[in-house]
Known about the structure:
single chain; 389 residues; alpha/beta; Aspartate Aminotransferase, domain 1; Aspartate Aminotransferase, domain 2; 2 domains; 4-stranded mixed sheet; 13 helices
Amino acid sequence: MLSTGSVIDLEERYESGVYPKRPLALVRGEGxxxxxxxxxxxxxxxxxxxVANVGHSHPTVVEAxxxxxxxxxxxxxxxxxEQRARLLAELVRIAPSGLERAFLCNSGAEAVEAALxxxxxxxxxxxxxxxxxxxxxxxxxALSATWRREYRGPFAPLVPGFEFVPYNRLEAMERTxxxxxAAVILEVxxxxxxxxxxxxxxxxxxxxxxxxxxxxxxxxxxxxxxxxTGRMFASEHHGLQPDLMCVAKGIAGGLPMGAVLIGTRIGPxxxxxxxxxxxxxxxxxxxxxxxxxxxxxxxxxxxxxxxGEQLLQGLLAIPSSKVREVRGMGLMxxxxxxxxxxxxxxxxxxxxxxxLSAGAAVLRFLPPLVIGPADVDTVVEQVxxxxxx
Length: 389
């Protein structure tokens, strides 16, 4: 096995350069912990950016992947496949009511791209409304719905027809949503935007307004889905029934996968209007089926509520003047500071805790839902220590 230095040197030489990297080379994971090339152990509060909901290398998921890989790894969507058929049925079973079909793809950005295309196709309209501080991906359509100027600026002009309104302010949406609007796309909890939960009345109000004015309501559950917020999907906290729901990240236990769940207002789509070579491949479908089984059998959404409340209350109890606010839902928690978060993320890594930023000043915690109470206590203790230092 290569040393940390050798891994870093090799990757720095040949990788594109687009990713700012921390000086760690991760080589192994189990549950809520990961290890670097030098054997050092970390409590993982990144979880692959919210991917490892069932924990790293869960044996049930690994075995399902391996078994399917030995049988068949790819099956074009022009043919039927047992694993794909079973997964489609399972996704509809666990989804909010009214979502009765799905398009399978490979990532959250792909899911958003598909949803935007579907919305324009079925409504015959072009305008899309998104929220300030929202994040939906980095491909051209998804980026056009993403707020941060540093992401958007270098690639202008983007896809036309997108407008932004303040999040959690229904009156702003009411002024903007008109007869030209194909869709509104919102996160239930804004992740990259700073871990900002949506108000239930606001989200239901936007949904009702879309129904009244002939627009589609797209909910982006890429980060909030599959138990992360304490329900299988965050929409369930507010009784939402989206027309299109984008999911990815935690869907397949660590394999790349995404999906758009499609509501009854839309129904079956015309042939050949969209497609994906690898979307719905049998190995990813087998992993997703195993992941759903683990989420339910181990009651991981319930554990997300319990451990999330422990983490939230622990962080709230830290007596630091550097903290502006702590907020979140389930095991999606943000601590907003009054200064830059980056030095504290580095200090936490030195103490064996890996966490994320969400904007310049927010520490974001997205641990696997299998994290134990002792590890949550350790995370809180180390956050308190670095804030005091």
